[in-house]
Amino acid sequence: MSGLRLDVVTLAPEAFAPLRSLGVIGRAFAAGIADLHTHNPRDFALDRYRKVDDEPYGGGAGMVLKPEPVFAAVESIPVLPRRRVLLMSPQGRPLQQADLQRWATDHDQLVLLCGHYEGFDERIRSLADEEVSIGDFVLTGGELPAMVLINGVVRLLPGTVGTAASLEQESHSTLLLEHPHYTRPASFRGQEVPAVLRSGDHGAIARWRFEQQQQRTAERRPDLHARWREQEQP
Fold first, then answer.
1. Domains detected in the chain
2. pTM value?
3. For residue range 121-171, what is the model confidence (pLDDT) as tens digits?
4. How many other CB atoms are found less than 10 A from the CB of residue 168?
């Protein structure tokens, strides 16, 4: 069975080259777990200058990404049965771990649209099934958000991470943050590994970790902790 197909429409395709060679994500691409393709709207521009932007109607600062090259780039991409088109935009819905899991599980193809310049022609939004934001801030383009999304999705695909169980207990896999981790040495600069973790009592360790998850979430993300408490009520 072929892997997840990722198609990125971007004016900076070279920005995605490191993804193909670095770490577990690069190994996933090499192993065919996922397949990455980039499509530059400049290759679909209608004039000899390969112009992809223009002045906004009504005036204003900056340039706006034209619709024709973006539509042509998207329409050149093969369509798989379970495809989802995602527009990287600071106006989009904030990215959540559940979204990454949904896209990794429910789709064979993700098409990521990266804006640039001052913004994009409003009609480009009609190409997308969803608009995605990685936070309440603005970057120079959608490439970094797209790389964040690709990393988050590909690491969830079967075979990418060596120990699949490690994905089940990490922060944001549930509403609770992950518990603290320790390794050797047992004592380092006056800081000790909790005795319970060295006890060999797996039941006590599980209880300690669960308690730590609750405590850490309450301290660092009270909004998540409140949602977890509400969910746990009968």
1. 4-154 (3.40.1280.10), 169-232 (1.10.1270.20)
2. 0.88
3. 999 999 999 999 999 999 999 999 999 999 999 999 999 986 655 555 555
4. 9
